[in-house]
Amino acid sequence: MKNGKCKDKGTFIVKILNEQNSTWQGSVTWVEEQKTQNFRSALELIKMIDEALDEEKELSE
User: Fold this and answer.
1) Which of 7, 24, 37, 48 has the fewest CB atoms nearer than 10 Å to its CB?
2) What is the span of the domain harbouring residue 27?
């Protein structure tokens, strides 16, 4: 966080549809871009959100 300012970066709706092999499967929707993607693990979910925020940052620069 630069300059001590907090800024909203995105809203994500996470739907957990199943739990298998000690992790989650489901879908995530990025509200601002109206994009939905399925994920097969919690790690994949985190990577998707991180990539979406990186994409948003690049577009705003």
Assistant:
1) 7
2) 13-60
- Residue 27 covered by a domain: yes
Residue 3 above 60 pLDDT?
Answer: no
Number of domains the chain contains: 1
**Predicted TM-score (pTM) of this structure:** 0.79
Question: Is residue 5 situated within a structural domain?
Answer: no
Cβ–Cβ < 8 Å for 8, 55 = no
What do you get for the CA distance between the two ends of the chain, in Å? 16
Q: What is the pLDDT of residues 4-47, one digit of tens each?
A: 454 667 899 999 999 999 999 999 999 999 999 999 999 999 99
Number of residues assigned to the chain: 61
